[in-house]
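Example 622.
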Amino acid sequence: MRRCFSTFTKPLNSPQNPESFLNRCKSIHHFYQIHAQLITKGQVSDPIVADKFLKSVSPCSVPYAHKVFDRILKRDVFLYNTMIKAGSATPDSCRDSLVLFRSMVQVPGLSPNRYTFVFCFKACGNGLSVCDGEQVRVHAIKAGLESNLFVSNALIGMYSALGLVSEAKKVFDCADLKDIYTWNIMIGGFVGSELMDQAKELFDEMPERDVVSWSSLIAGYVQVSCFAEALDTFHEMLQMGFPPNEFTLTSALTACANLVALDQGRWIHVYIDKSNIGINNDRLLSSLIDMYAKCGEIELATEVFNSRNALKRHVWPWNAMIGGFAMHGKPQDAINTFEQMKIKKVPPNKVTFVALLNACSHGYMVEEGRYYFKSMLDIHGLEPEMEHYGCMVDLLGRAGLLKEAEETISSMPMPPDAAVWGSLLRACKLHKDIQRAERIGSTIKELEPSHTGCKVLLANMYSSYGRWNEVNALREIIGKSRKKKTPGCSSIELNGAFHEFLSGDQSHPETKRLYLFLDAMASKLKLAGYVPEVGEVLHDVDEEEEKETALSRHSEKLAIAFGLMNTEPGTIIRIVKNLRVCLDCHEATKFISKVYEREIVVRDRIRFHHFKDGSCSCKDYW
Ligand code: ZN
Ligand code: ZN
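Predicted structure in complex with zinc ion:
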């Protein structure tokens, strides 16, 4: 703070007007000095000077701006607008804007103009209620300004921000005047409420589009996990000659990461380097790191991370890197990155700790995990949340410390959810503690009677003990309670095109060749010593993959076989699966990697599996 007192190079009591120094103010102390000068020179009551001063000081301190404003005797509409605008920027101060608006309309001879309404609607959308907004709207109608282009755009924005999209659409449909902002705001409204069909429909109707229209559509698809649509739209945008901005590129990279579309991700990386777009943007940097990590290229992720030393002021790239190391089972690297982050004085957030604890968990680093968990509150002042407790239960459970894991659950300040119990149950299965598993199973049943994932785990445990009566009883309950199953789906990218396979899928044009290949593959694997894991009668997944489908037709096997058929020997095969990989597919893929001498990277819902020479990077626990 000491630095703030460093005064201007030119003394303020120079003959020059104090207000001319305003755009050089770097701290609130500079404003104090100018304010003092304005008072001494008697300029503070000049409305033009006061407005200039308020405009400059309000982004720095709204309360101080208010103090100055309160002492101005003659306030015009411009001064009010400046103050209402300043308050509308954050949810904390938007109430002030409305208070000012109400006092403004009381002043005789003072009427709000279009900007007043624009800022008021912004304030209402930023954390006030729809009632407040509608009161302001009544004033806009009275002033005859409701149909003004700026005002109606702001009104559409307000309803959208409050999640009242149908109200926003009514205003949109009735608006006499529309410009590209009107359309973009309405599309943004649909996107914000995850109504992508409506967003797309409106997008198609647009008379003209700009980079904002394209970017918000792409971001919307990413938000609702329609990653292929996001990338298709991104390509269409490029074809139509719209250069993307950093937001578009961030969304496109997120889509690539989720689709394991490494080639396209790499292309975007080259594009960023060549175009210099967002080269200083930490968000974009973190999505680049995340893309490489999620596409199985942790070395490239590290390279990108290390190459941008000047950046990394925000927590995002650090979180992406630590999360990447965790996903790839590199706990020591995650810890080193975290320590480096502390040295650089970048404050960690809750996401950092989820990644860090996950890394410790995958690396069986119990001591380190305990230490970092404790440090959250002790050193960093962050209260652990459900997810962090979940990580700790997973960490202790994996290491076989089942009693301590169960005690951790009991010590939680919030009621544990079924996911936390589920991770302890999985650990019981791994360490073959059937008594504890049964006890936990009944707790989960009370907590969430419809939770099928836990019943599947328990059924599989019983089956490994040959307790078929229990297995059958559970099977029946699972069959009845299951709502809509999520079908297992795996995809592979070949030359920029995505091939998706469901379990037992026969819809692909190359199905015939694929199934012949699968049969040949099965024989080859058997010769190499692979035995199908039929013991696992139900899949160890939260959403069971269709059980009527034979194990050999699981979606990831189809995708891997398709990759083997269509790529040169030695090419790495990258698969992404929507559910947790089943035990049998995991075993089979280990054999495939050896028999076909291929590296196979599978990203499932939980983590990465890097298969090479007959073993997997997850060390068979996932
Ligand atoms: Zn499987
Ligand atoms: Zn694995």
